[in-house]
Amino acid sequence: MNYSKILFATLLIIVLLTGMVSAAKPIINADHTYFDINTGLYMLKGNVYIEVRNRIITAGQAKVNPATLEVWGTGGITVKQDDICFTGDSVYVYGTKDHAKIDGGVKLSRNGLSIEADNADFNWSTKIAVFNGNVHVSQGTTDWSADSVSYNVDSNSFL
């Protein structure tokens, strides 16, 4: 009787851990994919597509650490989730920290809103995007500029 309880508990733990690990496993596609065993990074070139959780990153080229879910991408990047879409020249995603840093001609497009800036930081946990440098906001018929803007994507409001 005790043996079957231990076996059941062990199997339950294995199933739960396997489910948690596979939930964060990225889907990675590119024209040219190479796994560098020395660095533990996927090296990707051409039509890069990376999907982790329900976030999609596209780029011309990228490096991905599948263990930490870190992504370094360049060349016309997009970072999408639901109706949120960031574009820019480069991105660094701190996967396990739910944070992305986007540089170079950053633009956020979303239902009647456009924010352009030199760079942006986005935190998926807090749902706050901070735009810095030459920020230009277009919302409906209103346009305005600032050096820095913080925007909450959940409440669709500026902080």
UniProtKB/TrEMBL annotation:
Family annotation (InterPro entries): LptD (IPR050218), OstA-like_N (IPR005653)
Entry keyword annotation includes Heme: no
Domain of life: Bacteria
Domain Organic solvent tolerance-like N-terminal: 115-151
Gene3D superfamilies for this protein: Lipopolysaccharide (LPS) transport protein A like domain
Tagged with keyword Nucleotide-binding: no
One Pfam family from the record: LptD_N
Keywords attached to this entry: Cell outer membrane, Membrane
Coiled coil: none
Name of this protein: LPS-assembly protein LptD
Native source species: Sporomusa acidovorans (strain ATCC 49682 / DSM 3132 / Mol)
